[in-house]
Amino acid sequence: MLLIFIASALTFSAAEFSVFVPNGSVSERLGSSAVLPCGLSPALNAKMFDVRWHKNDYNNPVLLYKDLKVQENTGDPQYRGRASLIGELEKGNVSLKLENLTLTDRGEYVCFVQSVTWYEKASVNLIVRALGSSPLFSLAEVGDQVNVSCASGGWSPKPTLTWRDKRGRELTTSHIHYKTDPEGLVSVSSWLLFSPSESEWISCSVGLSDQEMIDSRVLPVKGFWREAFISILVFSLIIIVILTALLLKRQGFLPHCSFQKNAKATVNLCESVPAEALPLTGTSKISEENGDSVKEKIASDSGPHTGVSSQSSVSAKERLLVWNKLKKQKVKLIVDPGTCHRPLTVTQDGTGVYCGQVNTSNSADTFPHVLSKEGFSSEQKYWEVTVDLKTKCKLSWCVGVTQKPPTKETLTALYYEERCGIYPSTDPHIQIPAEDHVTTLGLILDFKHKTLSFINVDKQSHLHTFRMNNMSNNKYFALMSPGIKDCYPVSFHN
Ligand SMILES: *[C@@H]1O[C@H](CO)[C@@H](O)[C@H](O)[C@H]1NC(C)=O
Ligand SMILES: *[C@@H]1O[C@H](CO)[C@@H](O)[C@H](O)[C@H]1NC(C)=O
Ligand SMILES: *[C@@H]1O[C@H](CO)[C@@H](O)[C@H](O)[C@H]1NC(C)=O
Ligand SMILES: *[C@@H]1O[C@H](CO)[C@@H](O)[C@H](O)[C@H]1NC(C)=O
Questions:
Q1: Tens digit of pLDDT for each residue in 431-463?
Q2: Neighbour count for residue 436 (Cβ, 10 Å)
Q3: Strands 412-417 and 421-424
Q4: Where do the domains of the chain lie, and which CATH numbers do they carry?
Q5: Which of 19, 103, 302, 461 has the fewest Cβ atoms nearer than 10 Å?
Q6: Which pTM does this prediction carry?
Q7: Which residue ranges have their beta carbon within 6 Å of ligand 2?
Q8: Which of 149, 161, 194 to mutate to test the pocket of ligand 4 (most atoms within 8 A of CB)?
Q9: Virtual CA dihedral for 168, 151, 201, 328, nearest 10 degrees?
């Protein structure tokens, strides 16, 4: 009788199990949290077992579960308060959760499970991702060619760098250099020689995957462009492909720019204009003038410069063709009054909106917006929005697209605040270089390429392109906000 009891007790405690990790590698963002999955097979109750998660040092564990509870104040102090068991121990799930990931958390973790008579272990690799800075360009002329270099820092793990031409073809270069700083962040730089006649612009993308890539473009065109490119960084256009949603989540729905940017005190010519005298219906006339000056500009561009470089005049003609095509496609929009709430008021002709009650104090929503009546879900759509007068009256505005109802995931827009300049909804810390004061914006919403591009209509120059990777088939609506800092309107320029 006693023998049988001992025998059965032995078989019970000698139950064998194996430890498995569904994925050998887990990748999470710096500062976020990670679950390192680990389970028992068969799914035995692990409550009575010891569970030890450790990195290199078995005796200095990340987490130790023993005697039916997690042992506080043991193990590596750098994990204290950040490591916990997240799964159901009863079902053999001994997964580890790590919060507030730091770069030093990278590496191999061992999941070690021990019963009275048996132990097993398995390991999981944790990758901590850090997104670096937007690539910066520098240009130098080397004979007929341009030496274009591109650099970006602050990445983890090692990013890839890709040069592409206008058609999206990869340009190869053997000059790519990586450097790791003491913190473990990687910077990358590269250069190539480029003949401006090969492509109008080239892009340099640095990233960890297709989803987390920052893309900058530069137009290293010689000839009449040269002056414009003497100060290198200006005029490059930047596409931010970082997951829009992630960034918006971090920055809030309607982000504010960082005010430490070199704030330029501009003389406000509009200050003394009483609210009643505002040109609420006069915007189309002013925009007409802009249209004329655009045409003049094209004429002068292709005129005197034809002798300088044939490339220059071809691209100017090309631009004119593209421009005329876009103008023909232009859609007429009106405001959906149902989307207009206080403090906004729709203008008399129904194409614009202004802030009836100027509020300079801090308010929860400094960019109350309205949507267009029309929505889009296919092809390519082009429309224009007048955001300011030539006299620089507006202190802030926001223009873009969103779905109904607007959510942070679907809102894609450019913001302007007097002290910060123009910045994208995806990252308020990036200032978009505009050559000049912008009065009318052109927007190209392209469902085929999943992009939203902004054009400075006055100058016919490209301002910014968003890649909308998560574009869905639901309708997108044009969005605009006059801000709450002045009572000048923003309006669809039909
Ligand atoms: C595990 O990794 C594969 C690719 O290796 C991936 O497709 C899958 O989504 C991952 N599963 C989890 C739960 O992370
Ligand atoms: C993670 O960091 C945030 C902010 O830095 C802090 O409020 C929070 O308590 C931290 N969580 C843990 C578990 O350390
Ligand atoms: C254990 O539970 C966690 C959290 O509920 C889950 O993410 C993980 O996939 C589970 N792992 C296993 C191996 O069952
Ligand atoms: C191009 O510029 C990089 C630095 O920006 C320099 O290291 C490289 O030598 C230059 N190449 C040529 C051919 O001038």
A1: 887 767 889 999 999 898 888 999 888 888 888
A2: 9
A3: antiparallel
A4: 2-129 (2.60.40.10), 136-222 (2.60.40.10), 276-492 (2.60.120.920)
A5: 103
A6: 0.50
A7: 81-82, 99-100
A8: 149
A9: 80
